[in-house]
User: Which sequence fits this backbone?
């Protein structure tokens, strides 16, 4: 019986160590905003790439939501992207998700943009609206493209 418990424990620890989403480790989240009883964070990841001789960066926006209320809610969200120096906001995507009572949802991918590497900082911003509530403020987070 003790041997079976040891084997099951080892299997459980191995399963915890295996990442379920390759992007999850590279996702960084910004400050929180709220809509109703739902706290929302905008998150960003930057994956390196190469097309021929040109180095690229795949910038992906995510939304993460935490419901502190006693009832489940449907949440609408939008994400925008820009280059900090002189850029303008471009919509990356939008969507809806279900956030259970006292639970969390995400990080959920909203959209992405592939950019040529350069010495510039990029940022995304996300806002959300729970059913029956107003749009939240903006949760903004940035990253430097092509950082090592």
Assistant:
């Amino acid at each position: 019986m003790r041997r079976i418990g040891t084997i099951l424990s080892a299997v459980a620890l191995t399963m915890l160590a295996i990442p379920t989403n390759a992007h999850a480790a590279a996702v960084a989240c910004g400050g929180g905003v709220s809509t109703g009883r739902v706290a929302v964070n905008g998150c960003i990841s930057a994956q390196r790439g190469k097309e021929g001789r040109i180095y690229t960066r795949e910038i992906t926006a995510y939304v993460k939501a935490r419901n502190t209320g006693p009832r489940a809610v449907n949440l609408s969200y939008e994400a925008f992207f820009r280059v900090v120096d002189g850029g303008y906001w471009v919509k990356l995507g939008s969507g809806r998700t279900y956030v259970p009572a006292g639970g969390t949802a995400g990080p959920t991918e909203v959209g992405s943009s592939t950019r040529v590497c350069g010495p510039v900082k990029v940022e995304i911003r996300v806002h959300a609206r729970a059913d029956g509530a107003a749009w939240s403020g903006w949760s903004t987070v940035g990253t430097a493209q092509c950082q090592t």
